[in-house]
What we know:
Blueprint: H1 3-11, E1 26-30, H2 57-68, E2 76-80, H3 90-99, E3 104-106, H4 116-124, E4 127-133, H5 139-146, H6 151-164, E5 168-175, H7 183-190, E6 197-202, H8 217-231, E7 237-241, H9 245-256, H10 261-264, H11 268-271, E8 276-277, E9 280-284, E10 289-291, E11 301-302, H12 308-314, H13 316-321, H14 329-332, H15 344-351, H16 376-379
Parallel strand pairs: 1-2, 1-9, 2-3, 3-4, 4-5, 5-6, 6-7, 8-9
Antiparallel strand pairs: 9-10, 10-11
Helix pairs in contact: 8-9
The structure holds iron/sulfur cluster.
Iron/sulfur cluster (SF4) binds next to helix 9 and helix 14.
Amino acid sequence: xNIHKVEGAFHQDGRGRFVFSDAPFLIYWEITRACDLxxxxxxxxxxxxxxxxxxxxxxxxxxLEKIREFGDRTPHLVLTGGDPLKRPDFSYILDYGDRLxxxxxVAPSGTYALTxxxxxxxxxxxxxxxxxSLDGSSREKHDGFRGTPGCFDWTVEAARLAKEEGLALQIxxxxxxxxxxxxxxxxxxxSGLGLMRWSLFYLIQVGRGQGLREITPDQCExxxxxxxxxxxxxxxxxxxxxxxxFRRVAFRRMREEGIPMARIFKTPVGRGFGIRxxxxxxxxxxxxxxxxSGFLPVAAGNVRRAHxxxxxxxxxxxxxxxxxxxxxxxxxxCEFKAxxxxxxxxxxxxxxxxxxxxxxxxxxxxxxxxxxxxxKEAENGSLNFPFLHIG
Length: 391
Ligand code: SF4
């Protein structure tokens, strides 16, 4: 199979099996920007006080009802911030979402407010999982990043309480030039927390993150390989955020190991193929603005004025970012663009163009196509791929 056939098997002119134009898998809703922490990388540039322009309780209810109207495949809702606990009506929002039958996760800030009663409330409200952040392997490193002494201990204790109260646990870890050397130690730390997923977020230079440095493409590539290696032994899912090129590395490694395509597509990384900013993912801000992701600040509409499903399906921004045929630079000519597609947010942060190439990726399209020439199952389209959830 030549390189063009490989590309065709994966993306089918931008309208193929990896294009999710009907509904996202995940909706991130920043229910408030208020937060007591002052993290150095904060996308939201969160502040202590709530914004009076936040969606009201009644607007929040309306949004939850609209999310339910996406249809049979209702997206999973991640309630984030700021710190969601800063909203006095948070428990009401959770309860209302639960009564509508929504699948929900919560991403609270690691503060003293995360008591056992909070996790009991999450469990009683049908929350499936809790995401906490650990960006350093020690008090000194983590608290230094989060800008608040005590944050490390609160977070580790919160992880323990979440597990004890029966909630699935995700740990998010920031990858920057400042944290990358600490990643193996952080891995050792999170391995003892009984987590369900470890997600590494590769810095996008937006918000306060503009003051930090990204890792180089070469470091990125080496980190991807290391993550693939540990993922084979880890009792939890290893995932990346804003680094979809991990899929290219994992895919190639699995093919080199002789893993059949059918099995690859059932792995956590395979189930996430194609999912990226605006294609399977959407973000709603505290004031109702809708973006392809929280790190791509190009508004596609506002839930105060339009139905969230209409914005996802019909806005120009969302339609564009799903069109792999319109990608530029290396992403535009890449045979992996359907399953990867690069971070649209990083392209925008680097070039002011969300259709440009992802500068964190070191791959030169076309040079190593022989490694995926055995993808016969994908080529003839005989597989029935299970698009379940982001990996
Ligand atoms: S060139 Fe772009 S599409 Fe290809 S692997 Fe890199 S980031 Fe992904």
